Amino acid sequence: MLHRMLPAALALPPEIARRFHRRAVLLDAPVNGIGAALDHHGFVQIDPINVCGRMQDHILRHRVAGYREGDLMRHVHGAETSQPALERVAFEHHLPDSHVLVAFPLDAWPHLLAAMHRRTRHSGAWSGKLTARERELAARILEEIATRGPLEPSHIDDDRRSRQSLWGSFSLAKSTLQKLFFHGRVLIAGRDHNRRLYDLPERVLPPAVLARREPGPEETARWIVHLKLRQRRLVTLKRNELPLVEDLVQPIAVPDCPPLFCLRSDLGLLDDVTRETCPPASDRARLIAPLDPLIYDRRVTAALWKFDYTWEVYTPPHKRVRGYYALPVMQGDRLLGHVDPKADRTLRRLVVVSRRVEGRSPTAPAVRELATFLGLRAR
After folding, report:
1. Which of 50, 78, 239, 313 could disulfide-pair with 83, CB 3.0 to 4.6 Å?
2. CA distance linking residue 174 with residue 126, whole number of Å
3. Alpha carbon distance 150, 141 (integer Å)
4. pLDDT tens per residue, range 128-157
5. What pTM value is reported for the model?
6. Burial level of 370, CB count in 10 A (0-12/13-18/19+)?
7. DSSP-assigned states of every residue in 176-224
8. Are 22 and 295 in contact (CB under 8 A)?
9. Are residues 181 and 188 in contact, defined by beta-carbon separation less than 8 angstroms?
10. DSSP 3-state of 258
């Protein structure tokens, strides 16, 4: 039986639920500044693949006024070199118990500590406890970082290789630094052409952040579920997740959809949407990120948006349906198909490899918009 503080479900027609979802994830109107977007969503996912711009830039270019390619990394690490710890407003790390790298606001730090500690006790080639060889090298790496400042794996004078793993064979220095990062003993202090520079936590995060107490298990579990709600704004919740946040959520019932939940703090947006005669920018098609918060949950995307989509970067070529880096096309409260673009940085043009869109919705303006963002010409 649900706790009595959980209100009755609000019944919404699909088109209203979609318009609310779009507005709640900041796709109707951009906010002023990356910090505001991070505070709203809780994190922004980071991915190194750059076919037509990186994931984080696709996510933020529709959400932050005046956003430029690479602005998230400049926000996290500074424009030229790694920011001093006292000036930090965000940092890079993994979602708890996952290999998903994201940019977090500073208040996330204490909630990551328990997952960091767990990784030091479990086996794992990429994030688990250090092997004997890695422990020996880790002591030297930490000493060198303390003396020399931020380092990347190639700066470590050691030519040994790590054992073969699912991700292949890497230098022992890289595997050791990667584990030290997962364990919270080093942090990403900056990037040199997307190569990570690692430094000691006390030189990356402000002292007041590092001094915060580690929350108890229930507090962090609640934070993780709340983070899911902040990130996607309209979600399904598992049976063990709902009791942790039932004082924060409003159940939503939409025909042909699983039970959905939104944050009660977003209900004002729902009131705004129900009073509108049409959604903003309903006549403008846009290309959204493959892992955009709006479509991250494939079950919700299929049921609410009637859109079957999978990011196929890691799909074998012969099994791909849409293309290597296909971007979904959004227009109003509909997802109409995809465009698969590729940036030719040498010739400074954006080429459309393939496109599949319902009806006659024009996608050329959306492609030109992306090309302009990337500093390219559309072809």
Report:
1. 78
2. 10
3. 11
4. 999 999 999 999 999 999 999 999 998 998
5. 0.94
6. buried
7. HHHHHHHTTSSEEEEEETTEEEEE-GGGTS-HHHHTSPPPPHHHHHHHH
8. no
9. yes
10. coil
Q: What is each CA distance from 207 to 24, 42, 211, in whole angstroms?
A: 34, 21, 6
Letter for the amino acid at 272?
D
Indicate the pairing of strand 327-331 with strand 195-199.
Answer: unpaired
Calpha distance 265→18 (Å, rounded): 18
Residues 6+ apart with CB under 8 A from 233: 21, 24, 25, 262, 263, 266, 293
Percent of the chain with pLDDT over 90: 84
Q: What angle do CA 103, 106, 108 make, to 5 degrees?
A: 80
Question: Each residue of 161-206: pLDDT tens digit?
Answer: 876 555 566 789 999 999 999 999 999 999 988 899 999 999 999 9
User: Among all chains, which residue has been given the structure tokens 């001093």?
Assistant: 84
Mean pLDDT (whole number) for 109-119: 97
Question: What is the C-alpha to C-alpha distance for residues 348 and 71, in angstroms, rounded to an integer?
Answer: 20
116 near 183, Cβ under 8 Å? yes
* Closest CA relative to residue 337, chosen from 349, 351, 317, 321: 321
Distance of alpha carbon 317 from alpha carbon 324, whole angstroms = 8
Interatomic CA distance for residues 3 and 60, integer angstroms: 37
Query: Which tokens hold the place of 14?
Result: 């699909």
Instruction: Look up residue 45 and give its two tokens.
Output: 């996912």
What is the per-residue pLDDT across 254-284, written as a single tens digit (0 to 9) for each? 999 999 999 999 999 999 998 886 655 556 8
Question: Is 171 in a helix, a strand, or coil?
Answer: strand
Annotate 155-185 with b (16+ C-beta within 10 A) or e (fewer): bbeeeeebeeeeeeebbbbbbbbbbbbbbbb
Beta carbons of 73 and 89 less than 8 angstroms apart = no
